[in-house]
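[step 3/7] fold_predict: job queued, chain A
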Amino acid sequence: MGANRILTYFNDIDFKRHFRFEKLNFLKVVDLIREDIKTMDGRGSPLTVVQQTVLALAYYANGSFQHTAGVILGTKKAHEIIHCVTKALCQRGKDFIALPRQAEMRELANDLMDRFGIPRVALGVDGTFIRLGNKPVATDLPPGLHLQDIWGRKQFYCFNVMVVGDSKQFIRKLSVGWAGSTHDAQVWRNSTTKI
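[step 4/7] structure written:
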């Protein structure tokens, strides 16, 4: 099923359930990265930015392997497309992910107090594991990193990511690239986020 048909095939609720994005916000993302995405060939026909973004969202939302995500568009270049879309999104991250200024911090703290009775807290922080689909090849790892470094305590290959969020469900800061064996406390100790 082509991505353009997916937009009309799924109603808003089903689209969000499948891709974890509302259609309107999905189209905003497409417009945002349109210039950064090149048209790629898939079996002789070019894939639009909409098709490539749907493919990446399907992969992100479902954690499925690239082949499964590729079934949506019938392309064997899923890995290449996902990499391209991910790179375009990451380049735009600094435009949207930032710690709030002092006035907004007070507003967020008041919101948490009003909603949950938590005093003098504006942001929350937690660590999460980003699981790797397959055992990585040692030669694909960054310099100085070994396979045992990314073997996490939950018994799978992963990276540890620290996420700072607010009461409005916005991500305010990410600390990525920590090996799966790294404890959350060490990620926090080395973070520039501490205020």
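[step 5/7] annotate
The chain has a mean pLDDT of 84.
Residues 3-93 form one domain.
exit 0
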